[in-house]
Amino acid sequence: MEDYKYLFKVVLIGNAGVGKTCLVRRFTQGLFPPGQGATIGVDFMIKTVQIGDDKVKLQIWDTAGQERFRSITQSYYRSADALVVVYDVTSFESFRCLPDWIKEIEQYASNKAITVLVGNKTDLIEDREVSLDNGTNFASTHEMRFLETSAKEADNVDKLFLDIAEELTKRVQVHEVEDSKDEIAICSQNHTVSATYNCCRW
Ligand SMILES: Nc1nc2c(ncn2[C@@H]2O[C@H](COP(=O)(O)OP(=O)(O)OP(=O)(O)O)[C@@H](O)[C@H]2O)c(=O)[nH]1
What's the pTM value of the predicted model, to 2 decimals? Predict the structure, then answer.
Protein backbone atom coordinates (compact mmCIF):
# COMPACT_ATOMS: atom_id res chain seq x y z
CA MET A 1 0.00 0.00 0.00
CA GLU A 2 1.37 3.40 -0.92
CA ASP A 3 1.49 5.73 2.03
CA TYR A 4 0.98 8.89 0.02
CA LYS A 5 -1.53 10.24 -2.45
CA TYR A 6 0.63 12.34 -4.76
CA LEU A 7 4.28 12.34 -5.73
CA PHE A 8 5.92 15.46 -7.12
CA LYS A 9 9.42 16.11 -8.36
CA VAL A 10 11.17 19.28 -7.34
CA VAL A 11 14.52 20.17 -8.93
CA LEU A 12 16.92 22.71 -7.44
CA ILE A 13 19.29 24.54 -9.78
CA GLY A 14 21.64 27.51 -9.50
CA ASN A 15 25.33 28.39 -9.32
CA ALA A 16 27.75 26.30 -7.29
CA GLY A 17 27.87 27.20 -3.61
CA VAL A 18 24.56 29.09 -3.37
CA GLY A 19 23.24 26.58 -0.81
CA LYS A 20 21.05 24.12 -2.73
CA THR A 21 22.21 21.07 -0.78
CA CYS A 22 21.88 22.92 2.53
CA LEU A 23 18.29 23.92 1.70
CA VAL A 24 17.39 20.33 0.85
CA ARG A 25 19.05 18.93 3.95
CA ARG A 26 17.50 21.56 6.18
CA PHE A 27 14.06 20.62 4.85
CA THR A 28 14.43 16.85 4.74
CA GLN A 29 16.66 16.28 7.76
CA GLY A 30 16.26 19.45 9.80
CA LEU A 31 19.97 20.13 9.89
CA PHE A 32 22.57 22.50 8.51
CA PRO A 33 25.48 20.28 7.55
CA PRO A 34 28.94 21.58 8.46
CA GLY A 35 31.56 21.60 5.69
CA GLN A 36 29.12 20.65 2.96
CA GLY A 37 31.09 19.44 -0.10
CA ALA A 38 30.09 20.26 -3.67
CA THR A 39 27.41 18.04 -5.18
CA ILE A 40 28.68 15.60 -7.78
CA GLY A 41 26.11 15.26 -10.57
CA VAL A 42 22.70 14.91 -8.96
CA ASP A 43 21.40 13.65 -5.63
CA PHE A 44 17.89 13.24 -4.35
CA MET A 45 16.05 13.14 -1.08
CA ILE A 46 12.47 12.45 -0.21
CA LYS A 47 10.10 13.91 2.30
CA THR A 48 6.39 13.30 2.79
CA VAL A 49 4.27 16.22 3.92
CA GLN A 50 0.64 16.61 4.87
CA ILE A 51 -1.36 18.94 2.61
CA GLY A 52 -4.95 19.20 3.82
CA ASP A 53 -6.23 15.61 3.96
CA ASP A 54 -3.56 14.25 1.64
CA LYS A 55 -0.06 12.90 2.11
CA VAL A 56 2.19 14.34 -0.55
CA LYS A 57 5.59 12.92 -1.30
CA LEU A 58 8.22 15.34 -2.56
CA GLN A 59 11.13 13.88 -4.44
CA ILE A 60 13.69 16.65 -4.27
CA TRP A 61 16.53 16.63 -6.77
CA ASP A 62 19.64 18.53 -5.77
CA THR A 63 21.76 19.28 -8.84
CA ALA A 64 25.42 20.24 -8.99
CA GLY A 65 25.98 23.91 -9.81
CA GLN A 66 29.35 23.32 -11.41
CA GLU A 67 29.38 23.83 -15.17
CA ARG A 68 31.04 20.46 -15.83
CA PHE A 69 27.93 18.60 -14.65
CA ARG A 70 25.51 20.64 -16.77
CA SER A 71 24.75 17.94 -19.33
CA ILE A 72 23.81 15.49 -16.55
CA THR A 73 21.69 17.95 -14.61
CA GLN A 74 19.81 19.17 -17.69
CA SER A 75 18.38 15.69 -18.19
CA TYR A 76 16.48 16.03 -14.90
CA TYR A 77 14.59 19.19 -15.86
CA ARG A 78 12.04 17.62 -18.15
CA SER A 79 10.23 15.56 -15.52
CA ALA A 80 10.28 18.32 -12.87
CA ASP A 81 6.95 19.50 -11.51
CA ALA A 82 8.71 22.45 -9.90
CA LEU A 83 12.05 24.11 -10.54
CA VAL A 84 13.67 26.10 -7.77
CA VAL A 85 16.33 28.52 -9.00
CA VAL A 86 18.63 29.46 -6.14
CA TYR A 87 21.05 32.39 -5.89
CA ASP A 88 23.11 33.62 -2.97
CA VAL A 89 22.16 37.08 -1.68
CA THR A 90 25.83 37.64 -0.77
CA SER A 91 26.99 36.93 -4.33
CA PHE A 92 25.98 39.35 -7.05
CA GLU A 93 27.65 36.96 -9.51
CA SER A 94 25.14 34.22 -8.64
CA PHE A 95 22.30 36.72 -9.27
CA ARG A 96 23.88 37.92 -12.53
CA CYS A 97 23.84 34.32 -13.80
CA LEU A 98 20.07 33.91 -13.32
CA PRO A 99 19.18 34.63 -16.98
CA ASP A 100 21.34 31.64 -17.97
CA TRP A 101 19.36 29.41 -15.59
CA ILE A 102 16.10 30.75 -16.99
CA LYS A 103 17.30 29.86 -20.49
CA GLU A 104 18.02 26.33 -19.30
CA ILE A 105 14.49 26.04 -17.92
CA GLU A 106 12.98 27.34 -21.16
CA GLN A 107 15.04 24.89 -23.13
CA TYR A 108 14.72 21.72 -21.06
CA ALA A 109 11.78 21.92 -18.64
CA SER A 110 8.06 21.42 -19.15
CA ASN A 111 6.17 24.69 -19.49
CA LYS A 112 3.72 23.32 -16.89
CA ALA A 113 6.38 23.28 -14.17
CA ILE A 114 6.16 25.79 -11.35
CA THR A 115 9.24 28.02 -11.14
CA VAL A 116 10.41 29.54 -7.88
CA LEU A 117 13.25 32.01 -7.35
CA VAL A 118 15.10 31.74 -4.04
CA GLY A 119 17.65 34.16 -2.60
CA ASN A 120 19.50 32.16 0.06
CA LYS A 121 21.89 33.06 2.94
CA THR A 122 19.89 35.98 4.35
CA ASP A 123 21.57 35.40 7.73
CA LEU A 124 24.74 36.96 6.30
CA ILE A 125 23.29 40.45 6.64
CA GLU A 126 26.56 42.38 6.42
CA ASP A 127 27.65 40.60 3.24
CA ARG A 128 24.48 41.14 1.25
CA GLU A 129 25.12 42.13 -2.39
CA VAL A 130 21.65 41.49 -3.82
CA SER A 131 18.73 43.49 -2.44
CA LEU A 132 15.24 42.17 -1.76
CA ASP A 133 14.02 44.47 -4.55
CA ASN A 134 16.48 42.97 -7.03
CA GLY A 135 15.05 39.53 -6.33
CA THR A 136 11.42 40.64 -6.31
CA ASN A 137 11.80 42.47 -9.64
CA PHE A 138 13.59 39.62 -11.34
CA ALA A 139 10.95 37.14 -10.18
CA SER A 140 8.02 39.28 -11.30
CA THR A 141 9.64 39.92 -14.71
CA HIS A 142 9.96 36.17 -15.20
CA GLU A 143 6.61 35.27 -13.60
CA MET A 144 8.23 33.27 -10.84
CA ARG A 145 7.34 32.92 -7.20
CA PHE A 146 9.98 34.44 -4.94
CA LEU A 147 11.29 33.83 -1.47
CA GLU A 148 14.42 34.72 0.46
CA THR A 149 15.72 31.98 2.74
CA SER A 150 18.42 31.03 5.17
CA ALA A 151 19.25 27.35 5.22
CA LYS A 152 21.48 28.07 8.20
CA GLU A 153 18.76 29.71 10.29
CA ALA A 154 15.95 27.54 8.87
CA ASP A 155 14.26 30.73 7.72
CA ASN A 156 11.51 30.21 5.11
CA VAL A 157 12.86 26.78 4.15
CA ASP A 158 9.79 24.74 5.17
CA LYS A 159 7.59 27.43 3.63
CA LEU A 160 9.45 27.13 0.33
CA PHE A 161 8.78 23.42 -0.06
CA LEU A 162 5.34 23.33 1.56
CA ASP A 163 4.08 26.12 -0.71
CA ILE A 164 5.29 24.13 -3.70
CA ALA A 165 3.58 20.96 -2.43
CA GLU A 166 0.37 22.87 -1.81
CA GLU A 167 0.32 24.53 -5.23
CA LEU A 168 1.10 21.27 -7.06
CA THR A 169 -1.59 19.45 -5.09
CA LYS A 170 -4.11 22.13 -6.05
CA ARG A 171 -3.09 21.86 -9.68
CA VAL A 172 -3.29 18.08 -9.80
CA GLN A 173 -6.72 18.21 -8.22
CA VAL A 174 -7.93 20.43 -11.06
CA HIS A 175 -5.98 18.29 -13.55
CA GLU A 176 -3.51 20.98 -14.55
CA VAL A 177 -0.58 18.66 -13.80
CA GLU A 178 -0.23 14.92 -13.30
CA ASP A 179 1.56 13.53 -10.30
CA SER A 180 4.68 11.42 -10.84
CA LYS A 181 3.69 8.41 -8.73
CA ASP A 182 4.24 5.79 -11.42
CA GLU A 183 7.81 6.91 -12.02
CA ILE A 184 9.08 6.48 -8.47
CA ALA A 185 9.83 2.78 -8.86
CA ILE A 186 12.02 3.45 -11.88
CA CYS A 187 13.84 6.27 -10.14
CA SER A 188 14.45 4.27 -6.99
CA GLN A 189 16.22 1.56 -8.94
CA ASN A 190 18.85 3.99 -10.12
CA HIS A 191 19.40 6.28 -7.18
CA THR A 192 19.92 6.06 -3.48
CA VAL A 193 17.11 7.59 -1.50
CA SER A 194 19.07 9.61 1.00
CA ALA A 195 16.29 10.13 3.50
CA THR A 196 12.62 9.53 4.08
CA TYR A 197 11.05 11.70 6.73
CA ASN A 198 7.55 12.69 7.58
CA CYS A 199 6.45 16.06 8.78
CA CYS A 200 3.17 17.68 9.59
CA ARG A 201 2.07 21.07 8.44
CA TRP A 202 2.24 23.62 11.15
N1 LIG B 1 25.64 31.51 6.17
C2 LIG B 1 25.05 30.63 5.37
N3 LIG B 1 25.78 29.75 4.67
C4 LIG B 1 25.13 28.87 3.87
C5 LIG B 1 23.72 28.85 3.75
N6 LIG B 1 23.38 27.86 2.88
C7 LIG B 1 24.53 27.30 2.50
N8 LIG B 1 25.60 27.90 3.09
C9 LIG B 1 27.02 27.57 2.91
O10 LIG B 1 27.33 27.73 1.54
C11 LIG B 1 28.26 26.74 1.12
C12 LIG B 1 27.71 25.98 -0.10
O13 LIG B 1 26.52 25.29 0.29
P14 LIG B 1 25.96 24.06 -0.59
O15 LIG B 1 24.63 23.71 -0.04
O16 LIG B 1 26.97 22.99 -0.71
O17 LIG B 1 25.81 24.79 -2.00
P18 LIG B 1 25.31 24.12 -3.39
O19 LIG B 1 24.52 25.16 -4.08
O20 LIG B 1 24.64 22.82 -3.12
O21 LIG B 1 26.69 23.90 -4.14
P22 LIG B 1 27.00 22.85 -5.34
O23 LIG B 1 26.73 21.49 -4.82
O24 LIG B 1 28.47 23.06 -5.65
O25 LIG B 1 26.14 23.24 -6.50
C26 LIG B 1 28.50 25.83 2.32
O27 LIG B 1 29.70 26.25 2.94
C28 LIG B 1 27.33 26.11 3.25
O29 LIG B 1 27.65 25.94 4.61
C30 LIG B 1 22.95 29.81 4.50
O31 LIG B 1 21.73 29.89 4.47
N32 LIG B 1 23.68 30.68 5.29
Answer: 0.88
**pLDDT (tens digit per residue) in 31-61:** 998 877 898 888 899 999 999 999 999 999 9
Calpha distance 113→68 (Å, rounded): 25
Task: Check residue 165 and give its pLDDT.
Answer: 98
Measured from CB, residues less than 6 Å from any atom of ligand 1 are 16-22, 36, 38-39, 64-66, 120-121, 123-124, 150-152
- What is the total count of domains within the chain? 1
CATH number at residue 123: 3.40.50.300
Q: Is residue 1 part of a domain?
A: no
d(CA 173, ligand 1 centre) in Å: 35
Parent domain of 79? 6-201
Residue 1 DSSP symbol: -
**52 within some domain:** yes
Is ipTM over 0.90?
yes
Question: Judging by DSSP bridges, how do beta strands 54-63 and 145-148 pair with one another?
Answer: unpaired
Question: Per-residue pLDDT for 190 more than 80?
Answer: no
Q: Specify if 121 maps to a domain.
A: yes
3-state secondary structure of 16: coil
**Spatial strand order in the sheet of 42-51:** 145-148, 114-120, 82-88, 6-13, 54-63, 42-51, 196-199
Does 59 map to a domain?
yes
pLDDT given at position 1? 59
